Amino acid sequence: MKRIRFLALIAAIAFFLMLPFAMRGYRGDDFQFHFSSWTGLRQAWLAGDFMPGWDGLANYTLGDPRFCFYPPLSLWLGALLSTILPIGLAPAAFVCLALVLSALSMYAASESLEEKRDRSLAAILYMVSPYLLVTAITRFAVAELLVLAWLPLIVLYFVRATTNRDRLSTLLLGFLLALTWLTNLPASLVLAYVLFFVTVIASIHQRSAKALIHFLAAESIAILISAFYLVPAFFEKRWITTSALLHHNFRDYFIFGSISSLHRRLFELGFWLITTVEIAVVVACVVSRGRKADSRHRLLYELAAVAFLFELPVTAVLWLYLPELRFVQFPFRFLSIIGAVLPLIVLGGRVNRKLVITACGLTALLALLPLASYLRIAPVASMGLPDHAAIIQQGYPGTEEYTPTGAVTLNSPVALAPVSVANDSPGARCKLASLSNGPRLKLISVDTDSLCRVRFATYFYPYWQAEDETGNVLQTSRDDAGLLVVAVPKGRHTVQIRFHVYSAVRMNSMAVSLFAFLTLLLGLWKYSRSDAPKSHTGDTLPLARAAI
User: Fold this and answer.
1) Same domain, 215 and 285
2) Which among 63, 36, 3, 10 has a CA at the least distance from the CA of 438?
3) What 3-state class would DSSP assign to 382?
4) Which of 184, 240, 268, 296 could disulfide-pair with 262, CB 3.0 to 4.6 Å?
5) Could you give the strand order of the β-sheet that contains 491-499, starting from the edge strand earlier in sequence?
6) Beta pairing partners, 444
7) pLDDT tens by residue, 451-508
8) How many domains does the structure of the chain reveal?
């Protein structure tokens, strides 16, 4: 009965937090991208293409390969909700689901770290944590939000893998990190660096490299499981404009940086306030516990401290030279770690009860910041739900970082014939007829008295393949605008152009991921059937059995 009441409570809180969306419409810097991507993926699924790679609705039907590069899990979940629910409810349902999962995740993570009576409070405290609500309501960064939904479990198994150094915690940590790599790359980089530095500190304290070995093993498991996405994206990133991801200057978003560099924007100043209060609470808890803190709680303190350091201007050199760290883009993303460990620190026992009440009250007050920000800006900058029918017909704006190299990102529709003769085919008399013009499969008939270069109203990408009626492969290239051009020889031909995403690199990577995932499942299954001493794993074993 208690569990039913708890589930009803967190569901009610999630519904209440979504009321502003219902009243004033959706908004957020990332809303247009995510909703449009869900629509494009949904259309591909309805057409029977479950691994499309190419989004034919992007750039107003000229397309882009975002489905090859954007981590798939949040896209799949959003497209699934858009398919089974009315399209207008899908964004709210996604956020509600993530909020409920975040509460359940913290409830599970607090089982061995908190007193039983505080587990529900810890779950609610995390569910309404300021950074989580900013991500959900103000930014609508739903991929990062999905990572926040299981972040407390990552903290739990990291602490166990580092202190107990047992294989089961390492395997489960690797699985959760794999889910993170397949959901949001900036969040994965945040976790990789914070967990690595904390593990190094723990190894120094323990005078042993075992903790570091366990973390590296977990991260290796994560990379192998997600190889089917990471490896092709790494090798193919030269085909898109990845430098567009770095158009933000990370120095402008440091906590306690100069006011002028922050342009006095309330958004960044809000992160100043959130960070200041949360770090002050962590410091107060450290002082309150004194030397009573055990190794697990010291790890939580170190997680908060390292995450805080990455938000300070003094770490600018790390942002410049650590591999791929600049792709995190915004230092305030490290707030996610502080928000996840804060309930575990505050409610970890042996902390003055007045301090606990004060921390909970401050968190509740900070939770009003994203709601107030939304209500203040929504009437002016509200992004109402786009016309779904118009998207299907005209497409939607492109995203610069996923636009193929040599093409231009479109912010408005262009009038182009589906198929035409390219300008560099002088003297060729071509008769063209479009037989089929799908987003990833096109069929045309060509009657030409000499070599004819046929241009399609879609962007060129190396995965586009063209064949004639006999199966001969035709040469593909791009024109000055980045559009796909196919060289058709003399004669009458029926030409098929299709987006073939299954390259050798991609297929080999899928095999590696499948092998790694099956090996992980086998390891979890064997461990669940073994008589592993519970003194080494705490109550990890029941959670592992539930995962299997």
Assistant:
1) no
2) 63
3) coil
4) 268
5) 430-437, 441-448, 491-499, 464-467, 473-474
6) 434, 495
7) 889 999 999 999 999 999 998 999 999 998 999 999 999 899 999 999 998 889 999 9
8) 4
